[in-house]
Amino acid sequence: MKVALDAGHGAQSGRPHTGAAANGLVEDELALDLVRRTGHHLRAAGCETVYTRPEDKLISLAERGRIAVTGKCDLFLSIHCNAGPASACGVEAFVAQGDHASRRIAELLAGAVSKIGLANRGVKWDSQSQHPRLAVLRETYRAMPAVLMEIGFLTSEHDSALLRDAHFRERVAVAVAGGLGNRRRS
Prior knowledge:
two-stranded antiparallel ribbon; 40% helix; 6 helices; six-stranded mixed β-sheet; alpha/beta; Aminopeptidase
């Protein structure tokens, strides 16, 4: 299996980050760390990986999709961290509206991550996102299953404390890679 791993957001010239930031954490940096860790575990399990954002810089959403599609990947996984009211917490995933194959994979992944300490907020269609019609999903889902995961809320004291811990981020990576491994066996 060949997996396109997309670290959400990225640094842009003149701006320190383009994602969420709260409680001393920056989404761009956490997403890149989580993607690198996940990629390590996927390769150890025999998967190929393609990174759409291998370093901390901004890559256009269309380019991310092009990398995955031209790389003939079997799955696209975009990893982000969420922000919202302080009471919001947990992991959730998004898939393109009506994409049931991706939804099944997203359910496996959200379930795997929820087992290590984050509430499971479920899987939602991209039309239910605060950014309807998520571009990275729209660029990829016709060519391969495509999932966007929001791993914890930076604005939650509980989630941000977990995400600050490198050991917890390693456990997330193991859970995500394991969830994809379960998908391969089913």
